[in-house]
Amino acid sequence: MHEKDCIFCKIVAGELPSAKVYEDDHVLAFMDIGQVTKGHTLIIPKTHTKNIYETPPEVAQEVFARVPRIANAIKEAFQPAGLNVLSNTEAVAGQTVFHLHVHLIPRYGKNDGFHATFEQHDNIASEHLGELAEKISSKIQ
Ligand code: AMP
Ligand code: ZN
C-alpha cells in the first residue's frame, strides 16, 4: 500500500531517486540524503506504515531482520568504530518523515556529528521500577 504524498513511498515506487544499498520484495535500504556520518543508511518497508506504533509484527520482522546484514556491510565498507540504530517515533522524537524507517548511523568517534547524549534522571527511585513495569506489561496485547 502506498500513500499518495509520502516521499518514501515515492522512492519505493521509483518516482523519486535514491542511492540504493539493498532491495528485496519487502524492504529497501538507501542512503540518507542528510548524512549525519559517512554511510548513514535508512531501511524502510515497501508498504506504508507510519512509525513503530502502527507497524504490524510481520512488517517489523522484515525490516529489523535486515539490520545486521546491512550494518555489517556498512562496517566492512567504512570501518566505523560502532553504529547507532534508531527509529524516531512522532515529531517530539524527531520524526520528520512519517513512513517507518530505521536509521543506521555509523560512528567514528565522540565528535563525529551524531549526538546520542541523554540524561538519566534519578527522580524515579528504583523501588518503583516494578510498578512501572506492571503498568506496561498489563497493556501488552
Ligand atoms: P526522521 O527525522 O527520523 O523522520 O528521518 C527522516 C530522514 O529522511 C532524515 O534523516 C532525512 O535526511 C531523510 N530524507 C528525507 N528525504 C529524503 C530523500 N529524498 N532521500 C533520502 N533521505 C531522505
Ligand atoms: Zn509511505
TrEMBL record:
UniProt GO BP: nucleotide metabolic process
Domain HIT: 7-115
CDD domains: HINT_subgroup
Motif Histidine triad motif boundaries: 99-103
Active site per UniProt: 101
Pfam families in alphabetical order: HIT
Matching PROSITE patterns: HIT_1, HIT_2
InterPro entries for the chain: HINT, Histidine_triad_CS, Histidine_triad_HIT, HIT-like, HIT-like_sf
Gene3D superfamilies reported for this sequence: HIT-like
GO MF annotation terms: catalytic activity
Name assigned to this protein: HIT family protein
